[in-house]
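Section: Multi-chain targets

For targets with more than one molecule, the full set of components is provided together so that the structure can be written out for the assembly as a whole rather than chain by chain. Components appear in the order listed by the source. The example entry contains two components.
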Amino acid sequence: EPEVTQTPSHQVTQMGQEVILRCVPISNHLYFYWYRQILGQKVEFLVSFYNNEISEKSEIFDDQFSVERPDGSNFTLKIRSTKLEDSAMYFCASSDTTGNTEAFFGQGTRLTVV
Amino acid sequence: QKEVEQNSGPLSVPEGAIASLNCTYSDRVSQSFFWYRQYSGKSPELIMSIYSNGDKEDGRFTAQLNKASQYVSLLIRDSQPSDSATYLCAVNPGNKLTFGTGTQLKVEL
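Its structure, encoded as tokens over all components, is:
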């Protein structure tokens, strides 16, 4: 069964460092998303991406964040200068053509900023 | 004002019973509604989607939607210990999902 894959599963980084989280969405999906979940809190939307551009972003997704689809399969989230409060689980998700249908999540990357 | 509200629980039911999970939402433009299951430390797993008023059944799961009341529910019949997890209600007011805080379900032997 097709699935969304994310790497790494766990990343520890020092405050102020840049991190790149990687995702391979389901191959025939065209809408891609990043969400995050701080420990004990709800899943929060960060950004959606379609046709090689951001289609929507939340207030959380400030200038420290960027997304990219560098090739035909990968979708990345970059955090330029990490802060302690960026520590969370980051989930990539994808959905098919309409963007208003079921979204499937990857297993997540646990980011720990120390 | 919270956009998606759920009772955080825990909701405890005995094995074999029906578990009833509820969710209300505030954004009337939402057209798609989803239930995800999340085990501790894992990612959300889609278990049900519903788009029109009424009931939708899939195996032991039934989703119910009432757009006039802005209410979505999930019934789990014949609850099993493996159903113990947090159930997330999500609505799609556009090109994103807005999640509730989730209801923790515990199915007791």
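The mean pLDDT of chain B is 95.
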